[in-house]
Amino acid sequence: DESVLNRYSRDFVITLFAHAHASGFRFQTFLGAWKFYTSYTLKTFDGKRYLEDFADRVTMVALTLAQGDETLATQLTDEMLSGRFQP
Protein backbone atom coordinates (compact mmCIF):
# COMPACT_ATOMS: atom_id res chain seq x y z
CA ASP A 1 0.00 0.00 0.00
CA GLU A 2 1.49 3.29 -1.10
CA SER A 3 0.26 5.18 1.98
CA VAL A 4 2.13 2.75 4.25
CA LEU A 5 5.36 2.73 2.26
CA ASN A 6 5.45 6.52 1.91
CA ARG A 7 5.98 6.83 5.68
CA TYR A 8 9.46 5.30 5.35
CA SER A 9 12.58 5.89 3.31
CA ARG A 10 13.09 3.54 0.38
CA ASP A 11 16.41 2.39 1.86
CA PHE A 12 14.78 1.43 5.15
CA VAL A 13 12.01 -0.57 3.44
CA ILE A 14 14.52 -2.48 1.32
CA THR A 15 16.69 -3.13 4.38
CA LEU A 16 13.74 -4.36 6.44
CA PHE A 17 12.59 -6.76 3.70
CA ALA A 18 16.17 -8.07 3.39
CA HIS A 19 16.37 -8.47 7.18
CA ALA A 20 13.13 -10.46 7.25
CA HIS A 21 14.23 -12.74 4.42
CA ALA A 22 17.64 -13.28 6.03
CA SER A 23 16.02 -14.49 9.25
CA GLY A 24 15.66 -17.98 7.81
CA PHE A 25 12.08 -18.30 9.05
CA ARG A 26 10.54 -21.74 8.67
CA PHE A 27 7.11 -22.80 9.82
CA GLN A 28 7.37 -25.10 12.83
CA THR A 29 4.45 -27.24 11.71
CA PHE A 30 2.84 -28.28 8.47
CA LEU A 31 -0.47 -26.94 9.76
CA GLY A 32 1.01 -23.46 10.25
CA ALA A 33 2.36 -23.39 6.70
CA TRP A 34 -0.86 -24.81 5.27
CA LYS A 35 -3.01 -22.25 7.08
CA PHE A 36 -0.84 -19.35 5.90
CA TYR A 37 -0.69 -20.43 2.27
CA THR A 38 -4.38 -21.36 2.02
CA SER A 39 -5.92 -18.51 4.02
CA TYR A 40 -3.64 -15.50 4.25
CA THR A 41 -1.05 -15.21 1.50
CA LEU A 42 -1.66 -13.02 -1.52
CA LYS A 43 -2.29 -15.12 -4.65
CA THR A 44 -3.07 -14.51 -8.28
CA PHE A 45 -6.76 -14.30 -9.17
CA ASP A 46 -6.72 -17.87 -10.46
CA GLY A 47 -5.04 -19.04 -7.23
CA LYS A 48 -2.19 -20.77 -9.06
CA ARG A 49 0.71 -18.54 -7.96
CA TYR A 50 1.72 -17.05 -4.65
CA LEU A 51 2.69 -13.38 -4.76
CA GLU A 52 4.26 -13.19 -1.29
CA ASP A 53 5.82 -15.36 1.35
CA PHE A 54 5.65 -15.15 5.13
CA ALA A 55 8.61 -12.74 5.40
CA ASP A 56 6.93 -10.37 2.92
CA ARG A 57 3.64 -10.48 4.84
CA VAL A 58 5.35 -9.93 8.20
CA THR A 59 7.29 -6.95 6.87
CA MET A 60 4.23 -5.22 5.47
CA VAL A 61 2.24 -5.83 8.65
CA ALA A 62 5.10 -4.42 10.75
CA LEU A 63 5.38 -1.34 8.53
CA THR A 64 1.64 -0.78 8.78
CA LEU A 65 1.46 -1.17 12.56
CA ALA A 66 4.55 0.97 13.23
CA GLN A 67 3.04 3.96 11.37
CA GLY A 68 6.39 5.44 10.33
CA ASP A 69 8.46 4.44 13.38
CA GLU A 70 11.47 2.57 11.94
CA THR A 71 12.62 1.19 15.29
CA LEU A 72 9.17 -0.18 16.07
CA ALA A 73 8.84 -1.66 12.57
CA THR A 74 12.11 -3.54 13.04
CA GLN A 75 11.09 -4.77 16.49
CA LEU A 76 7.68 -5.91 15.27
CA THR A 77 9.26 -7.76 12.36
CA ASP A 78 11.60 -9.61 14.71
CA GLU A 79 8.81 -10.44 17.16
CA MET A 80 6.53 -11.82 14.43
CA LEU A 81 9.30 -13.87 12.83
CA SER A 82 10.20 -15.36 16.22
CA GLY A 83 6.57 -16.24 16.92
CA ARG A 84 6.36 -14.08 20.05
CA PHE A 85 3.84 -11.68 18.51
CA GLN A 86 0.94 -12.48 16.22
CA PRO A 87 -1.29 -9.53 15.30
UniProtKB/TrEMBL annotation:
GO molecular function, a single term: ATP binding
Biological process according to GO: deoxyribonucleotide biosynthetic process
InterPro entries of this UniProt entry? Answer: RNR_lsu_N (IPR013509), RNR_R1-su_N (IPR008926)
Keyword check for Chaperone, yes or no: no
Ribonucleotide reductase large subunit N-terminal domain spans which residues? 27-87
Q: Which UniProt keywords apply?
A: Deoxyribonucleotide synthesis
Q: What is this protein called?
A: Ribonucleotide-diphosphate reductase subunit alpha
Please report the organism this UniProt entry assigns to the protein: Escherichia coli
